[in-house]
Design a protein that fits this description.
Helix 2 runs antiparallel to helix 10. The protein has 10 helices and 12 strands. With 354 residues, it is of the alpha/beta class. The radius of gyration is 35 Å and the shape is globular.
């Protein structure tokens, strides 16, 4: 009997130890599984926090960026504008975006009835009340400001971008480049053969728009000196490029944005001195044979840092008359000076000012 009781007690003790061990094992297992789950979930929590933080930063940046939608005092009406042909890509790319984002504003480009389109003719049309604001690739002249005052208002120029002034020649012409002074002497008729500037024995034919219709001004310090008799006048940059393609000794100056990409002409390096010539295109130059599969691209870095010697600033010309013309001129300039507008100007091939 005693032996039986002892066996029962021993069995009960073993069962108790087994159950205790089983419970402890389960608890330890649950702790390990819980710890593992916590470890696996912890990176996801950090990841979510990181994503949320990034999203907050992105939203903060996006909210701070100015856009066409953020510009106030945009008049809901239709307006006439015009001017520089160098602005053609801005009218195509940027202005179309403005009107898409601000459908209450309608812009209508107007060509001059007399003369060729350009900065000068656009400013003249603004003075005559035929435009509500003008686009210019050059600053206002003293004469234009005087004319505005005679008519009871003033003109303001608001810079919104930059462009280079490129000098282009026939692709067959072999010349290392020009200094700004040499270019000036060519258009004054004092340098008449390319062999005077390191080129072949070939007469120079200089093309230009007429001064009264000029899109850009290459020399503001001529002090009344007229262009030489070797200068032939053209209607537009398109006309000049066409003439250059069949004139081996021809030369023309225009907005770099409008001619650097062309296949039928070659842009020359320019400099203040002959030992420091800067190209208006990104090197290496794309040859005419490679074009149009590849095209030369604007040397925006040289224009932006000022190392390129001939710069054309892009201005919105605003009539300060406290009327609707002043309101739309200010609104248009403000639209172009937003972050969205400056990005669009650079997409159009120019250099922004912000």
């Amino acid at each position: 009997m005693d032996n039986t009781n002892q066996r029962k007690a021993l069995i009960n003790s073993e069962i108790s130890l087994f159950l205790r061990g089983l419970i402890i094992g389960k608890v330890l297992t649950l702790m390990v599984i819980g710890g593992l789950l916590w470890w696996l979930l912890k990176p996801n929590v950090f990841s979510r926090n990181s994503v949320n933080s990034s999203n907050q930063n992105f939203n903060r940046i996006s909210n701070n960026a100015s856009s066409f939608q953020t510009v106030a005092d945009v008049p809901p009406a239709s307006f006439n504008y015009g001017g520089s042909t160098a602005w053609a890509s801005i009218r195509q790319l940027v202005d179309s975006q403005i009107q898409s984002d601000r459908p209450e504003l309608q812009l209508r480009y107007v060509n001059p009835v007399n003369g060729s389109p350009g900065s000068s003719s656009g400013i003249r049309m603004l003075l005559d009340g035929k435009l509500d604001f003008a686009q210019s690739s050059r600053p206002l002249t003293d004469e234009e400001q005087a004319m505005a005052k005679e008519r009871g208002f003033t003109l303001e120029q608001r810079q919104v971008g930059m462009d280079g002034i490129a000098v282009v020649v026939n692709p067959s012409l072999n010349v290392p480049g020009l200094t700004v002074e040499q270019l000036q002497q060519i258009y004054l008729g004092k340098i008449t053969n390319w062999n005077q500037v390191g080129g072949p024995n070939l007469p120079i034919t200089a093309f230009s728009q007429r001064p009264e219709d000029a899109d850009i001004v290459i020399f503001r310090d001529l002090k009344g000196q007229a262009f030489g008799s070797n200068v032939q006048y053209v209607y537009s940059a398109t006309d000049a490029v066409r003439q250059l393609s069949k004139t081996p000794g021809g030369v023309y100056y225009a907005s770099a944005r409008s001619v650097v990409f062309q296949c039928s002409v070659k842009a020359l390096p320019l400099g203040q001195t002959s030992d420091r010539l800067i190209t208006p295109y990104q090197q290496p130059m794309v040859s005419p044979e490679q074009c149009p599969r590849q095209r030369n691209q604007l040397n925006t870095q040289a224009i932006k840092n000022g190392s390129y010697p001939m710069i054309a600033n892009l201005f919105v010309i605003i009539k300060q008359n406290k009327g609707s013309e002043q309101q739309i001129g200010n609104a248009y300039a403000n639209l172009l000076l937003t972050d969205q507008g400056q990005r669009a100007i650079e997409q159009a091939g120019f250099v922004g000012v912000r």
